[in-house]
Amino acid sequence: MAKALGFRTAVDAVLLSTALAGMRRVGRYEYATDRINNGPIRTVLETYLGVGEWILERGTRTMARYPMTFRRIPEDQVTRRGYRGRT
């Protein structure tokens, strides 16, 4: 039971880190980790955020490798609220 709970928590943490990486890229933000004075905590946080960046990058590369399955959305079809769909 404890192992399953630990695994689920780890998966949730990776999913959250990946979502944060996606929000960072879409919103063009940067995390102010340099404002964290405690070196070990800053290192752990940067590593945690780096895992999400790595997962997101792997997914992006995988999608680019299969253009018949995953099409890029044309720039004129993207709005602030997202994809307008086909017109």
TrEMBL record:
Signal peptide as annotated in the record: 1-21
Pfam family, one: Mitofissin
Record key words, sorted: Signal
PANTHER family xrefs: CHROMOSOME 16, WHOLE GENOME SHOTGUN SEQUENCE (PTHR28075), DUF1748-DOMAIN-CONTAINING PROTEIN (PTHR28075:SF1)
GO cellular component, one term: cytoplasm
Protein name: Uncharacterized protein
Phylogenetic classification of the source organism: Eukaryota, Fungi, Fungi incertae sedis, Chytridiomycota, Chytridiomycota incertae sedis
Species of provenance: Piromyces finnis
